[in-house]
Amino acid sequence: LSIYGDRDAGSPSPDWSARMKLLDSETPLVVFSKTYCRYSKKAKDLLELYDLSPKPIIIEVDLRDDGNFIKTVLTRLTGRSTFPNAILRGKSIGGSDEIAMMHKDHRLRQLFEDAGLMVRADL
């Protein structure tokens, strides 16, 4: 998944606002993650328990050539510079600790359902 389209040397800068709106329409939940990060793994494992539909898009930033650029843009757009960073309907809902706390407090399922996701797991 290219999160902002192809960039050639002669192409203009990506329109991040438009790309985020497109991502939001394609899938309500996007998780920016790093493959080696234990916090990213913890968050992804917890989200997997919910068996969401549509499934979240997981973007492994460390596997991309533009990972540093993505981090810079995410920091500007969300105010968060750490991973994971879960974006629900265009707004950051936090990272591993925040997701775990919402799960523990039984708020995460309702948050997902209010955003239009179907929670197929019986949690």
Reconstruct the topology from this structure.
Blueprint (H helix, E strand, L loop, with lengths): L15 H11 L2 E5 L4 H12 L2 E2 L3 E4 L6 H12 L6 E4 L2 E4 L1 H9 L3 H7 L3 E2 L4
Parallel strand pairs: 1-3
Antiparallel strand pairs: 1-4, 2-6, 4-5
In total, the number of strands is: 6
Alpha-carbon distance between the termini? 30 Å
Write down the oligomeric state: single chain
Stretches where pLDDT falls below 50 for ≥5 residues? 1-7
Quick one: biggest sheet? Answer: 4 strands, mixed
- What sequence of helices (H) and strands (E) makes up the elements? HEHEEHEEHHE
The computed structural class is: alpha+beta
What value does the Rg take, in angstroms? 15 Å
The number of helical segments is: 5
Tell me what portion of residues adopts beta-strand conformation: 15-25%
The helix content, as a percent range, equals 40-55%
The largest sheet has its strands arranged as 3-1-4-5
Shape estimate? globular
Task: Round the mean pLDDT to the nearest integer and report it.
Answer: 88
